[in-house]
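Q: Sequence in, structure out?
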Amino acid sequence: MDMQRTAVALGLFDGVHLGHRRVLEAAVQTGLLPCAFTFTPGTAAAKGAPGYIYGQDEKEMLLRERCGIRVICSPDFTDVCGMEGSDFAGDVLAGEMNAGFVCCGKDFRFGRNASCGAEELAELGKKYGFDTGTVEDVCLDGARVSSTEIRRLLLSGETERANRLLGEPYLILKQVVHGAQLGRTIGFPTINQIFEPGQLVPAFGVYASVTRTGGREYPSMTNIGVKPTVDYGGAPLAETYIHGFSGDLYGSSPEVRLLRFIRPEQRFGSVEELRAQIARDVRAAVNIT
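A: Exactly. Output:
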């Protein structure tokens, strides 16, 4: 990697949450070329975690557009997990990334068998010619901001609290795919976005949301789940009705942001019952946004 002197933020950055942003900010503020060394989602999941928070598209968008990162190095975890800490610091950070400064959270581990942490990084920085910094945890309302807590909140439908820890509303940034087009036949055309295998799926149900496409933001309603009324047997997806929008979004990747959980997913006795409930959900969602 041939580049100018860099400041490298190290981390999984699973949710690019407030704690992660503090680490990234430390790299951006140096005046060097700000970079993030992270891993492809799903290749370095935390032990026992119910899935990673964001896919690669969401993660890269947040790193670049929200955090000011210019260069992202994102290999599979398996490509580097066997490296000794000294080799990672010398070959990757000092060599490929031309690091002048490297920062991480106080719990970050690297090297074979996670043998190295912030103290070892500082020593290796002296050896290979880069400065280092360790960033303390971020707390909100007296509690540590963590991906573990955000996952718990998303799975339990506590969207507003999760959004506070994330630093902004939960993001879905995925290509729109073709569905059964039932919504179109009952007066509520929707877009379908499929979650990635291994990604955490928020609590099944209906959400007030906002959708950004074509440079405009629209109030919207998003259902996350598996379409129980129409016997949909596919992977969990986000199905969003965009209030006031008319157009074809197939193949594009609009930003859908979840604002508040309205109700759990449920099965209805008929499509007519479903249509009536969707109308109520849309009114509730638009009033929230």
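The chain has two domains: 6-144, 170-288.
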